[in-house]
Design a protein that fits this description.
- Chain B: It catalyses: ATP + protein L-histidine = ADP + protein N-phospho-L-histidine.
- Chain B: Keywords: ATP-binding, Kinase, Membrane, Nucleotide-binding, Phosphoprotein, Transferase, Transmembrane, Transmembrane helix, Two-component regulatory system.
- The complex is a heterodimer of chains A (119) and B (653).
- Chain A has one domain: Rossmann fold, CATH 3.40.50.
- Helices cover 40% and strands 24% of the residues of chain A.
- Chain A has five helices and seven strands, in the order E-H-E-H-E-E-E-H-E-H-E-H.
- A five-stranded parallel sheet of chain A has the order 2-1-3-6-7, sandwiched between helices.
- In chain B, 43% of the residues lie in helices and 24% in strands.
- Chain B contains 18 helices and 22 strands.
- Chain B has a five-stranded antiparallel sheet, with helices on both faces.
- The chains are: A alpha/beta (119), B alpha+beta (653).
- At the A-B interface, helix 1 of A face helix 13 and helix 14 of B.
Chain lengths: 119, 653
Amino acid sequence: MRGKVVYVLEDDADISDLIAYILCEAGYNVEQCGTVRKFNEVVTRSLPDIFILDVLLPDGNGLEICKQLRTDPVTRNIPVLMMSANKTRRDIESFGCAVDFISKPFNIDHFRQRVDQYV
Amino acid sequence: MDTDSLHELFTFKSIFEGLEDAVICHDLDQNISNWNPAAERLFGYTKKEMMGKTIFSLMSPEYHTEQEQMIKDLLQGGAVNHFYTVRRARTGKQIPVFLTLSPIRDKNENIIGVSQIVRNVTKEKETEQQQAVWSAIIEGSEDAVISKTLDGIIITWNKGAENIFGYTEKEAIGKHISLLIAPDRLAEEDRIIASIKRGEKVDHYQTVRIRKDGAELQVSLTVSPIRDGDGEIIGASKIARDITAYIQAEQALEKKAKQLLILNSIGKNISEKLDVNAILQKVTDATTNLTGAAFGAFFYNKVNSEGESYMLYTLSGVPREAFAEFPMPRNTAVFHATFSGEGVVRADDITKDPRYGKNDPHFGMPKGHLPVVSYLAVPVLSSSGTVIGGLFFGHPQPGVFLEEHEDMVVNVASQAAIALDNSKLFEEVSELSRKKDEFIALAAHELKTPLTSMSGFLQILQKNDLEGINKMFVEKSVRQLEKLTVLVNDLFDISKVQAGKLQFNFELFDLSLLIEEICETFKHSVPGREFITVLEPRLIVKGDKMRMEQVITNLVANAVKYAPGSPKIDITAAGKQNEIIVCVKDYGPGISRENQAYIFTQFYRVTNDEHHVSGLGLGLYITREIIKRHGGRIWVESEPGNGASFIFAVPQA
């Protein structure tokens, strides 16, 4: 069985690698994007089973992307997990993104369980 | 002598002796031949003493000729009736009298003597004198004394009335009193007359009357009924006092008191305010009010003192639209003294000022400008001496602004300058504080990024089957990173608290259960300490569960941290009168009274020489903020040496 696909949008290479490591260990296929531009390219090519998005990005805002994904009929049913060091779940919700949220730094087991529950 | 004659004689004698008036008879040589008891009472001499004495002994020498003349007149067939003169009593007292002299004739109708009836008119004389005194008083009175009939016709009119009302006695007498009354006050007179008819005096009635020249007078009236001899009311006497000056003085006093009140309140008012616009408006309103200006404006220099950069800020007495069409006042000849800070400009008529009308393009007030004749302009200088603005007042009438107004505005302007300086300082501080919060938020974010990867990688390492010293080191690193995360989170929270952006998500939950869970975690993570909980079940609060968890965790962690020697920590929670009281008690060194006062303030840390404990001094500050936002309170109870109890109370849902 082919592993589930996770797209990670995270500009910090170490954090991105950390997430990739945790999820690969758990049997996922991880596509890492460091910029919004790259993310958009990847998304137009194919779709994952879950998106994991950071908020502050060098060329955009994860919350905006989340909103787009939730409104686009093609992606609206794909689960999104937002991550942030500064924002809280409430900030995310008040922005209009009713999706799951995990704050940085996180417990890696906890992180993996969050992803597992969606796929 | 027949019986009839005898009878008549006795009758006369009886009358003679019973008369109230003194009756004296004397012969033509003036020798007294008869003297009745009334004469004895009047003069003090007995009949016996006076018989044979001359009538001249009853008068001062200056009246002798008069007496002789009277007798002469009488002998020539004349009559003396009610002749007024003065007689002298035994005591020497001069007695005013009326004399009526009648001749005494013999059988042949020859005059052989004179009878004098002497009527003592002392009382009448006194009354007359009194009247003279009264008229003199009335005539000399500065008040108007007027009498009138019940129909309102003026009967008497004194000098005071002439002075106050401007009509002469001749002009006033016979006229109706409405001469002095404004048409709209005629009803007053009816009410006054009605009182008089009832016999009631009207006292100190303050009203307005009209002078001959049409000027209004403030008067105080006292009106009393005039009665005739039978007590019948036949008219009214009226005393009118001109109280215009008094009223003016009273009004001036009242105005002064009002001004003082404004002056006092403005200082307090503006010093409490930090918002520039609020200060400007307050100052403009108050000074416009104080000066009696028709309109006032405060031009506040927001930019610099280059001369042209003034901004219309606040207006009083006119709507903003009244000035909306005009450009900002420029550095013209009239405005120069104000905008350069040279001094106050006060003009009774600014259009006559040499500086007026000198500048292009308007040469005076621009078209459509509010009509300014009286003009007052006061520069507002900051403590450093720079011009920060100007207060301007106008009035369409000339000569409205007096020196006292100038003084008051200068006084208020200096207070305003202080308030504006403070406001500027406050703005600067607020801006700095905002930048600081922004920086902290940014720093916290930047710190968390490496924390996230470090903590993640260490967790991965931990999962490898490490042994011995490696395992221990990794575990220590993980724990230190957790502490570091808490510190960074605190920093982040504080920036939010300060910016008023700490968000709360209120829900109903069981605080008792939450405390239980937190204490379980502590039991696992801090072995070797006893966490003793006494919790009343089901303590429902409406609160932010995450923030409340932060509070309790912080209090318990503090107890662990600051009371390292305390073997146990007691955590209790109970409902009490609509509140839930939670207490975390340690058995450590306790907190001195001095430290207790500051412990909840930002960046404050208990100094303890024995052991240094790490931290930023933010935990309790944030804790208190969270409790406050829950409508609760937090405090500490401690006796140095006997541990400390941190207690908070939040409303029970």
